[in-house]
């Protein structure tokens, strides 16, 4: 039986990063991955690279350029008549995905990680059974095992996915034409990102959200502003909408919804179901090894991602915490380092969130509502991009930066942004909070001019009511 120091099950951003870090630290490492791409070729990278973060951002960028050409280029004195070639846009997306997934195979080679293609499961707490696509089986011994099996889209009984009329996020990333009428169930991260892609390309998009609040996880000021901006852009977001049934026909999909106490029937060309994801923890042999899952199927782990059984660890979307690629990767690095005898640390309080609409939405730390509910005395300062010279030069003045600091110590407790390049701006906030910065520290830090980052500086000044430009 082949023996490894570490076998990782799953080659997504949790698993492949853990495998590379372990190999860097001198561990004999294998990664078991069963993914097959659209050409039926084995591929690394998991959800994130194949059908998640990367392809969605490729389409978000392409559709952003199209919208700029269509709606905003003229303000810059540029006129053009843009046209869309969806096949080309999709081919570009797929090329980026292939380059990146092949890049990981290259990184595995460079770091001497063995990629074992096939389905992995625990034969025991110290061995992994792998079944290849052709049915051949092997069992490998492992001193340590990391489960990084990720997540899959959640299904709801009223709207069964057929990947034709009714699709999940994977289907919605692969449309070969712009649907004229697009329905989306769920105004979460995927609903907003993919709803934005197809709206920009010309679809009439209706988003049906069960909850009465919009983006309940975000700071209220951000969710209010984002709802206003995204609605103005043309997303028809219906809150408190209960989907009773969705029926796919030859030409359309009919959706029955309970809205404001009345029943309504809506018709779409395509319907995306984006109501969350669930951990992918079936068929892993967890019972064989005595590993517990919670009532929602997540593998139970402690703060170090240890399952409590032998040397079996679990990371990423298949364990508690936000389902984000960077969270999965940081857990992977930390577990690899712990196995190698180091004492790593992941700050779960400071995992940034980014939603890649335009303007983008990003936050880190606590919301004002959560802090107030916990009885904390805080001072919040906001700065609108309307007052930023750089944002005006770009023609991107929607949104603001909001910084929340402790009223007594001035320590920054949360930063919330809706605005251009919020995805990049939030990094400064995370670093500041990671170093325990006060709002005064940010206010005393010299920011380049003219930059969007100056809005962070001004928001820090605003916590003390001394913003200069607003
Ligand atoms: P995954 O990426 O799901 O990888 C798990 C891997 O394990 C898969 O490749 C699977 O084939 C393999 N596997 C599972 N079981 C077995 C087995 N038994 N044997 C062998 N292999 C197995 N997150 C962000 O941070 N930013 C974003 O912009 C973002 N955009 C997203 C957009 C979309 C449309 C979607 C769907 C998700 C997005 N996410 C984003 C979420 C992100 O993709 C996940 O949080 C991330 O991929 C989780 O990484 P992971 O390694 O835990 O799992
Ligand atoms: P989500 O949890 O972000 O949003 C799901 C939404 O659907 C929620 O608002 C929920 O209230 C609503 N909902 C649930 N059941 C419903 C029903 N029956 N009818 C109507 N609405 C319903 O989930 P998602 O958008 O599917 O994304 C899954 C996860 O993938 C995200 O939570 C995130 O972790 C990850 N992701 C991240 C990014 C990013 O970081 N930019 C992008 C895409 C996905």
Give structural notes.
With 470 residues, the chain is α/β, with parallel strands linked by helices. The protein has three domains: 3-153 and 278-346, FAD/NAD(P)-binding domain (3-Layer(bba) Sandwich); 166-275, FAD/NAD(P)-binding domain, CATH 3.50.50.60; 352-462, Enolase-like, domain 1 (2-Layer Sandwich), CATH 3.30.390.30. The chain contains 14 helices and 22 strands. The chain has helices spanning 15-24, 46-51, 53-72, 86-111, 169-172, 189-200, 220-233, 286-289, 325-339, 368-373, 389-394, 422-434, 439-443, 454-462, and strands at residues 3-9, 29-33, 114-117, 119-124, 127-131, 137-147, 151-153, 166-167, 181-185, 204-208, 236-238, 241-248, 253-259, 262-268, 270-273, 277-279, 312-314, 353-355, 360-365, 378-384, 400-406, 412-419. Strands 1, 2, 3, 4, 5, 6 and 17 form a seven-stranded mixed sheet that branches. A five-stranded parallel sheet has the order 8-15-9-10-11. A five-stranded antiparallel sheet has the order 18-19-22-21-20, with helices on both faces. Helix 1 (15-24) links the parallel strand 1 and strand 2. Helix 3 packs antiparallel against helix 4. Flavin-adenine dinucleotide is lined by residues 9-15, 32-35, 46-48, 52-53, 56, 119-121, 148-151, 169, 190, 280, 284, 316-317, 323-326, 328.
């Amino acid at each position: 039986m082949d023996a490894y120091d570490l076998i990782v099950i799953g080659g997504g951003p949790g698993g492949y990063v853990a495998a590379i870090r372990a190999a860097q630290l001198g561990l004999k490492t294998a990664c078991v991955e069963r993914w097959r791409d659209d050409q039926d070729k084995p591929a690394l990278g998991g959800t994130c690279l194949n059908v998640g973060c990367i392809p969605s951002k490729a389409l978000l960028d392409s559709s952003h350029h199209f919208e700029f050409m269509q709606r905003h280029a003229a303000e810059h004195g540029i006129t053009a008549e843009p046209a869309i070639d969806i096949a080309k846009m999709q081919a570009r997306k797929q090329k980026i995905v292939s380059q990146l997934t092949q890049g990981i195979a290259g990184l595995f080679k460079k770091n001497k990680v063995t990629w074992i293609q096939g389905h992995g499961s625990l034969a025991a707490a110290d061995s992994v059974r792998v079944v290849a696509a052709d049915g051949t089986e092997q069992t490998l011994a492992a001193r340590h095992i990391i489960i990084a099996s990720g997540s899959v889209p959640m299904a709801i009984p009223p709207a069964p996915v057929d990947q034709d009329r009714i699709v999940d996020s994977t289907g919605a990333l692969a449309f070969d034409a712009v649907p004229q009428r697009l329905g989306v169930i769920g105004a979460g991260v995927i609903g907003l990102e993919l709803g934005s892609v197809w709206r920009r390309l010309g679809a009439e998009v209706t988003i049906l959200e069960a909850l009465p609040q919009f983006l309940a996880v975000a700071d209220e000021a951000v969710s209010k502003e984002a709802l206003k901006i995204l609605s103005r852009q043309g997303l028809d977001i219906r809150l408190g909408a209960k989907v009773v049934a969705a029926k796919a026909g030859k030409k359309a999909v009919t959706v029955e919804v309970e809205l404001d106490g009345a029943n309504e029937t809506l018709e779409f060309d395509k319907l995306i179901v984006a109501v969350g994801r669930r951990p992918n923890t079936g068929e892993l042999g967890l019972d064989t090894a005595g590993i517990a899952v919670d009532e929602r199927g997540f593998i139970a782990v402690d703060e170090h991602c240890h399952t409590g059984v032998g040397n079996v660890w679990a990371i990423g979307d298949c364990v508690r915490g936000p389902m984000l690629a960077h969270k999965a990767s940081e857990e992977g690095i930390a577990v690899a380092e712990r196995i190698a005898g180091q004492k790593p640390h992941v700050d779960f309080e400071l995992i940034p969130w980014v939603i890649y609409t335009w303007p983008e939405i990003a936050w880190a730390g606590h919301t004002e509502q959560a802090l107030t509910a916990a009885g904390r005395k805080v001072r919040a300062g906001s700065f609108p991009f309307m007052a930023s010279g750089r944002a005006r030069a770009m023609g991107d003045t929607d949104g603001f930066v909001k910084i929340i600091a402790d009223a007594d110590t001035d320590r920054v407790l949360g930063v919330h942004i809706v605005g251009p390049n919020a995805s990049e701006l939030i990094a400064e906030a995370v670093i500041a909070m990671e170093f325990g910065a006060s709002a005064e520290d940010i206010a005393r830090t010299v920011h380049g001019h003219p930059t969007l980052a100056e809005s962070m500086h001004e928001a820090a000044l605003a916590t003390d009511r001394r913003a200069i430009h607003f």
